[in-house]
Amino acid sequence: MFSSHSIKIHKEQDVCGICMNYLTKKELLSNLEGLTGSHELKIDDGCAIISEHGGRVIGLFPTSTSKNSFWVNPRAKEILKSRSWNLGGERFWISPERDFFYKNPEKWEGWFCPEGIDPANYKIYNQDAGSCMVKSNLTFLNQFSKKKYTGYINREIHASPDPVETSQAHAGVSIKEECVIHDSEFAGNGWSLAQVISGGVNNPGTVIIPVKEDAEPLSYFRKIPENRLHVAPDHVSFKIDVHEIYKLAIRPDDIDFSVKTKIAYMLKIPGTGMHVGIVKISDDIPRTQADCLDAARDHPDLDVGVIQSYNSESPALPNLMFGEIELQLLPFREREGHATCTSEHELHVYEGNKKEITEIIGSMCNIDGEPFLFTQ
Q1: Is 240 exposed, middle or buried, given 0-12, 13-18 or 19+ CB atoms closer than 10 A?
Q2: Cα(316)–Cα(251) distance, rounded to whole angstroms?
Q3: CA end-to-end distance (rounded Å), the chain
Q4: What is the phi/psi pair of residue 212, to 5°?
Q5: Are residues 182 and 150 in contact, defined by beta-carbon separation less than 8 angstroms?
């Protein structure tokens, strides 16, 4: 159960009393202090905050007065003290989820997060005003075979300029990862996930994914209702209202690889006329079905998706849970007697009015006209 007593939260309430926790930089840092190391990257008028716990980008702030663009757990202090995984922000995992995150993978039962993957034991190295490195050893089991794997992950994080040079408030990071598993036959993918804020059923966010014409989006858990999904000729939109659990995925067959942006997110900031847009850029994702091993629970023997988005539910209202924007990264390949996954990706956050942010996302996703939005 979520409660607000353990974290200093800047709360916004919609007309139904729903609480959205938008943390300032000061509020975020006060909840990390004494419980985990952190590092601040300077980005023009804003910054990024890196958490040692989980090796995460835990905050992105386009200006000095901005609220965090990422969801952070309202029980952050408890999460840190108990060394649990669900702190919030952007993180690195390893897929297939079925193999490593289900205690009974045959029946897709007993989901858990392996502590040796997240939060692992990250430490921050080589920090300066514009970059740092987070490193950790990794340990986890294949839940089918019970085989133990060990390895390590290095995440090099840099402040990144605005790739489209807009005049909007902006903060961005580029991340270069090297993950090595000490087994040359290891099969899996890197997995990049970022937890985003939703305003609930009355102020949902919208995930926007650029696609080829006649794309066929996949459901990963159960069929996604039509009122949560919109398929246009050049993009797919997915509602994030954190009310019911659904997961969307896009097949590599439907991805327009000429578009640098792979997934975006847009949300109205309550109590203001402002919107936030989050954009994820990478070329290091699988281009074929064979190179992505993350099977769908809904149809484990059929097509897989490379670009993914998750809508959670919020059982402890009025506190809201999170949505996620996700990329399956390149598969591990044999190199010098080990299995290695290397990848580069970027996260950019913009603040502005609805027209400004819609135009930025539309342009970066190469959409003809405006993207379809579930936002107000």
Answers
A1: buried
A2: 33
A3: 29
A4: -75, 165
A5: yes
Question: Would you list the domain boundaries of the chain?
Answer: 15-364
What's the DSSP call for residue 85? S
Q: Tell me which H or E stretch contains 354.
A: helix 354-364
pLDDT tens sequence across 53-62: 999 999 999 9
Dump the DSSP string for 217-282: -EESSSPPPGGGEEE-SSEEEEEE-SSS-EEEEE-GGG--TT-SEEEEEEEEPTTSSEEEEEEEE-
Nearest to 80 by CA among 41, 38, 44: 38
Per-residue CA distances from 131 to 156, 169, 173, 254, 295 (Å): 7, 20, 9, 35, 35
Does the domain made of 15-364 have the CATH classification 3.40.640.10? Answer: no
**Is the per-residue pLDDT at 271 higher than 80?**
no
pLDDT tens profile 151-172: 999 999 999 999 999 999 999 9
Chain centroid offset of residue 296 CA: 18
CB 210 within 8 A of CB 367: yes
This prediction's pTM: 0.94
Phi, psi (rounded to 5 degrees) for 146: 65, 20
Cα 180 from Cα 105, distance rounded (Å):
24
Beta strands in 76-145 (DSSP E): 90-95, 102-104, 109-111, 123-128, 131-141
- Which ranges in 66-157 belong to alpha helices (H)? 76-82, 97-101
Name, in order, each residue with C-beta under 8 angstroms of 298's C-beta and a sequence gap of 6 or more: 218, 219, 220, 221, 222, 223
**317 in helix, strand or coil?**
coil
Task: Report CA-CA distances (Å) from 168 to 130, 150, 357.
Answer: 20, 43, 8
pLDDT of residue 317: 82
The yes-or-no verdict on residue 296 having pLDDT over 50 is yes
Helix, strand, or coil here: 77? helix
Residue 362 has, within 13 A of its CA and on its CB side, a CA count of: 14
The pair of three-digit structure tokens given for residue 306, joined into one six-digit string:
């490379």
DSSP 291: G
